[in-house]
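Hi V.,

Quick status before I head out on leave. The structure for the redesign project is tokenized and pasted below; the design run finished overnight.
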């Protein structure tokens, strides 16, 4: 074997364990990384969308959330379906952007909602299953709550485009993406500011489902985690 070949083999040997360590480290903190990406979207998404509207930074952050959500469930053995749907979402968005195929917008939204729905359920199962209550389990529970808020936000946005006038209190008469996410988290947290209100029957029904589900989830989550922690101490 030539010296160059030996050197290349040695470098590859060094890179492989390093990559393995990085992947292992990510798996140990996968729900923490997802939590960070979700907080970034909620904290900075609307501001970035207002400052750089032509580039749709909020939609880019939602795509990042999608990738982080898929990666978070990869270790749970349920990665193939979310991964395939995620690839289909990227393809739909790319075709829409390149060829201006507006008909693919609801298709992309549906794929995003499906993937986020699957990862939300998987996160809840991870958080509530028997075992040690650690930081990752708590973060998985928080991720599920935030993912649900985003899921309902996209659902409100899609509903307002399919059923114009579903929401009142908006300046333009329609609900934009950042406004839909804002309304969703106001609803799931039962804050009820009243600046954006559901005006159609489907919007009211969806808002009631989100508000009740959010409160029930928190009640069940606290009871389950306290029960698991008590067993852990015993």
């Amino acid at each position: 074997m030539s010296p160059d070949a030996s050197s290349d083999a040695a470098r590859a040997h060094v890179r492989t364990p390093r990559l393995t360590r990085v992947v292992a480290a990510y798996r140990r903190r996968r729900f923490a990384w997802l939590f960070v990406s979700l907080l970034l979207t909620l904290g900075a998404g609307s501001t970035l969308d207002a400052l750089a509207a032509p580039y749709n930074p909020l939609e880019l952050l939602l795509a990042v959330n999608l990738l982080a959500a898929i990666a978070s469930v990869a270790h749970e053995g349920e990665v193939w379906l979310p991964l395939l749907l995620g690839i289909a979402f990227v393809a739909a968005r790319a075709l829409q952007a390149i060829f201006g195929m507006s008909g693919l917008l609801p298709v992309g939204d549906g794929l995003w909602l499906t993937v986020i729905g699957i990862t939300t359920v998987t996160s809840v199962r991870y958080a509530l299953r028997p075992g040690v209550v650690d930081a990752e389990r708590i973060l998985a529970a928080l991720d599920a709550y935030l993912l649900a808020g985003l899921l309902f936000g996209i659902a409100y946005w899609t509903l307002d485009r399919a059923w114009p006038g579903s929401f009142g209190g908006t300046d333009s008469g329609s609900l934009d993406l950042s406004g839909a996410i804002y309304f969703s988290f106001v609803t799931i947290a039962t804050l009820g500011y009243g600046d954006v209100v559901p005006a159609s029957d489907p919007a009211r029904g969806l808002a009631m489902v989100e508000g009740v589900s959010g409160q029930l989830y928190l009640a069940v989550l606290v009871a389950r985690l306290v029960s698991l922690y008590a067993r852990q101490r015993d």
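Above is the designed sequence. The longest strand covers residues 167-168.

G. will cover questions while I'm gone.

Best,
W.
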